[in-house]
Structure formats: structure tokens, C-alpha cells
């Protein structure tokens, strides 16, 4: 059985220490379930407590020049990639402890893999996101749901420092109200549109037809997240989009390093 608690990962090249927490998996019902499989199994895993910051991503860029603003291939990032930095290796002081944004899925994936981790799946991210400070699943708590919606409605003109929000049931912070976050299979709603959306693709998520096949018609926050993900392409970089990493566990509860594919 997975013991709840903290885990720290250390990147020897940058002396970087990141706090992770254990998430005990289980079954949950996603917003868009696969026909005949309403509940989805989420295995135990570790998740970063906070989103990756600009300072942390800068250390990564220094060690991996192919991800510099002036060197990254257009296939892997659009023209807005890291455009809020002063130069390839310089960021404004006020951004150092803010969640990194204007990074593509490719860049986020590469960062996580270089830490021996990976991006969370949609199911893993949503599983953790349904927790309040006291409950692992607070989706039926109207006050909690309203709090999340209000955090989404706040203007994102200025990023907040990471660690801003209270820790949820698992010990994770800043899932809501900071930035949207990349997931490993963010486009799964498009790729599996036939089974998840009665033959409709992502277009249906932006209108009333998006409710067809949904398991929880009152979960407006989840609708917003799925609609946002379905609008993305892997090379997109947005001011409102960042990421965090997760790690797998083996049968003995030990961390499993992700395989590098870049």
C-alpha cells in the first residue's frame, strides 16, 4: 500500500530540489467516460506539489540548448515560445517564482523526462483536481465547485507566485486559478471523439452538444478544462498555460524514471 507523504527529487546538474507528494490511486468517473467503462482506474503515483517555475525552466534551458528561445525548432514551439523572457538565458526577476508559461507541450514533456518524470495524464490530473483541502473527491460540494469557478474567472493579467494556494487533500497546490496545465494526453478528447462524444470531435465541447455523453452535467469547471485542452496543439504556447510533472511507482512503491524520447 502506498504511504502518503512527501518525496523530494534532486537534479544534480542544477542542485534543484522539487517536492513531490504521493497520490493513492483509485476509481473515478471522468467527465467524458468511454462507453461501457464509466469508471476509470488511476494507479498510485507521485505528483509535483507546485507547477514548474520560470527559474526552474531556465536551468533546464541552460543544460539543453535545443530548447532555447532562439534554437527551438518551429515544429516544437510557435513564435510565442518564452517571449516574456528578456533573452535566451535571462528572465525578469518578478517571473522567477511564477509558474512558467509560454511553453509548448513538446518543451514541457522534454523538461519532465529530463527530471526522470513525465507529464500527468488527463485522468491523473483530474483525479487530483477533484480533491478539496479535506476530501479526495469534493465534486459534489457546491461551495468547493463555486470556489474553483471563481478562480477560473479571475483575470490572469499577473501571475501569482507558486505555493499561493492551500494544499489539497493530497498535498498538491496551485491546480486551480494559476495557469492551465499541459497533460500527457491533452488531445485524447479529439483522438477518441467517437467513443467519448457520440461521434462529435472537440467542436462539440464549445456548444450545447458538448453535454452529450458527459457524466456530470453540473461540473462546469471540468467542461472548461476539457474545452481548453481540445483547442490546443502540441506546439502552442500560451500565457495562461504551464505544467507540472509526475512519477510512476513500481510494485514496491519505488519511483520509476520515465524514458527519454527526445
What is the count of helical runs?
A: 7
| Succession of helices and strands | EEEEEHHHHEHHHEEE
Radius of gyration: 18 Å
Low-confidence stretches are 10-16, 190-215
Percent strand: 5-15%
Please state the structural category: alpha+beta
- Spatial shape: globular
What is the level-2 CATH architecture name? Alpha-Beta Complex
Question: What's the helical proportion of residues?
Answer: 10-25%
What is the CA-CA span between the terminal residues?
A: 33 Å
What topology, given as strand order, has the largest sheet? Answer: 1-2-5-8-9
Mean pLDDT across all amino acids: 80
- The total beta strand count reads 9
Describe this structure in words.
With 262 residues, the protein is of the alpha+beta class. It has a single domain, classed as paralog of FGE (formylglycine-generating enzyme), CATH 3.90.1580. Helices cover 23% and strands 13% of the residues. The chain is built from 7 helices and 9 strands. A 5-stranded antiparallel beta sheet has the order 1-2-5-8-9, with no helix packed on it. A two-stranded antiparallel ribbon has the order 3-4. It starts with 5 loop residues before the first strand and ends in a 6-residue tail after the last strand. Residues 10-16 and 190-215 have low confidence and may be disordered.
Summarize this, please?
The chain is α+β, with helices and mostly antiparallel strands and 262 residues long. The chain is 23% helix and 13% strand. It has one domain (6-251): Alpha-Beta Complex (paralog of FGE (formylglycine-generating enzyme)).
